[in-house]
Amino acid sequence: MFKHVIALTFSFLLVVSFPASAANPRGGSQRVRRAISGRITDPNGAVVVAAKITIVGRSSLTTVIKRSDTKGQYVADLEPDTYDVTAAAPGFKTATRSTGVLRGSRSYMDFVLYPADPVNSPRIVP
User: Fold this and answer.
1) pLDDT digits (tens, 9 = 90+) for 79-117
2) What is the CATH number assigned to the segment(s) 38-112?
3) What's the CA angle centered on 46, arms 36 and 111, to 5 degrees?
4) Which of 95, 59, 55 has its CA nearest to residue 78?
5) DSSP string, 55-118
6) pTM for the full model?
7) Burial group, residue 22, by CB count within 10 angstroms (0-12, 13-18, 19+)
8) Is the Cβ–Cβ distance between 107 and 100 less than 8 Å?
């Protein structure tokens, strides 16, 4: 009976320590993706809906474009890299910042967009 206990214990350890990526039915390892998310507001704290968020990976040169939702929020799933994130909306100055996305982490990047300079803004003349 002692031999059976050792055999069962050994089998159990193999199952528990078996890597999750090897259980992938497609046969390849799964990519680990992380996210950048945030909220776009104006200086008064009001949300900026449909702001364009452009995210460019420095190493991969991957470009992802998102829009803020009705709560001013956006989220983008990305590969680990350093990213330049730009938020823009009509009538506001564009804002750009950088962040790193690492394995096992999530980056939060809120933006406050300030009104564009009315003196230098294009005017519609009737």
Assistant:
1) 999 999 999 999 999 999 999 988 877 889 999 999 998
2) 2.60.40.1120
3) 30
4) 55
5) EEETTT--EEEEE--TTSEEEEEE-SEEEEEEEE-TTB--EEEEEEE-TT-EEE--EEPPBP-T
6) 0.68
7) exposed
8) yes
